Known about the structure:
- The strands form two sheets. This protein has a six-stranded mixed beta sheet with strand order 2-3-4-5-7-6, with helices on both faces. The chain has a three-stranded antiparallel beta sheet with strand order 1-9-8.
- α3 packs antiparallel against α4.
- β4 (47-51), α1 (56-76) and β5 (87-92) form a beta-alpha-beta unit.
- The chain is an alpha+beta fold.
- It folds into three domains: 9-151, 3-Layer(aba) Sandwich (Glutaredoxin); 188-280, no CATH class; 284-397, Tetratricopeptide repeat domain (Serine Threonine Protein Phosphatase 5, Tetratricopeptide repeat), CATH 1.25.40.
- The protein has helices spanning 56-76, 95-106, 133-151, 157-166, 188-192, 199-203, 214-227, 231-241, 250-264, 267-280, 284-296, 300-313, 318-330, 334-346, 351-364, 368-381, 383-397, and strands at 9-10, 19-22, 40-43, 47-51, 87-92, 113-116, 125-129, 170-172, 179-181.
Amino acid sequence: MKKRLTVLIFAGAAAFFVHAQDRNGAAGMDAAGTNTVGVHTVTARRYELIAGSSGPDTEALQRELELRFDIYNRLFRFDPSSISLPLKVRLFRDKETYDGYVSARLGTPREGAVYLHYNQSERRELVIHLGSPEAARMIPAQAFLQYFRAFIPSPPAWMKEGFTVYFSTLAAETGTGELSYKENLAWLETVKSLGKIDLQRVLMADEGEPPPHLQPLSWSLVSFLLNSGSEDYFRSLTDSFMLLSPGAAAAENAEAVRKRLYLWASPEAVQEDYLAYLASRRTFAELIEAGQRSYAEGDPSAAESCFYEALEQRPNHYAPYYYLGLLAYEKQGYDTAEQYYRSALQYGADPALVQYALGLNAAAAGKKSEAAGFLEAAAAAAPERYRNRVRELLGRLK
């Protein structure tokens, strides 16, 4: 299946100009109503960072945001010169101060990072609790919202929700600052469980009552239009970006996009193709089941492919590791099998089951002492299942 933007790596730092100014002693208020005394500002091509102090982490974030902007615009192709002001980012290092600032504007704190949107463009800002674990998780989605709504303040709801999820896995690599993209399939299982889906309600969610599960449905529509392999759908989507108007209401923008999408295909054809695409994307559970089936049918290559794909979706789940361990064991790749089994154990697999598998693997590799230790641990963890089998195996090892 042809896919677009499913692997994005934007290496290297974009060239940018940094201007730092300490405003100690310069009393005043900025457009957001915040005291500017002692504020340190870093300005680059498209962003202005406001913080109590600057440092390497501030400059690293500046570069990251500039890279994000470039990646977003590789798809949307908005005119950067149409933005009259740099995108504002306000940084707090202290959680209490960050929470207080956000609560004063939203009535409740938001973990990590949040984009605050106002009718007045000079008041809009991305607020970040710099250095918090939650910030790393929240910045991808909130940074995209800031970018998108800087150009189109009132986008169609499905575009806003769908692309926010789509880009939420555009992550900064620790240490390098490079951005890498891994397709976000977190909502796939939810969408496939919904039954009948009316795409027209999703497309026109800004008119009247939005459909239930709008966020996952919006993501699935974006995924379909980008990754279906159809040039018509991809072209319809990218053409529709040019129809979005900064001065239009969300419903007006949604109607313009809907007309463009249905210009080349009927609503019935789009619905049918969307459902076929959805059926073709396998969930984690479906991949594990297919892998087990292929394994039982004696097709280790197909099984391995399924388990690797499952691992891509959920790298912290024990099941793919365990089954990949089995496959490696059968190919006599004992060291590889041990690594997979240990990962399965780390991510919550049944200890007795994995200890038993590790024991068999070590025995096959000729590591009798290690094998005995694993097998005894399995028997101790689940004597009703393994005690008799372990006793027999230990006898053979001697």
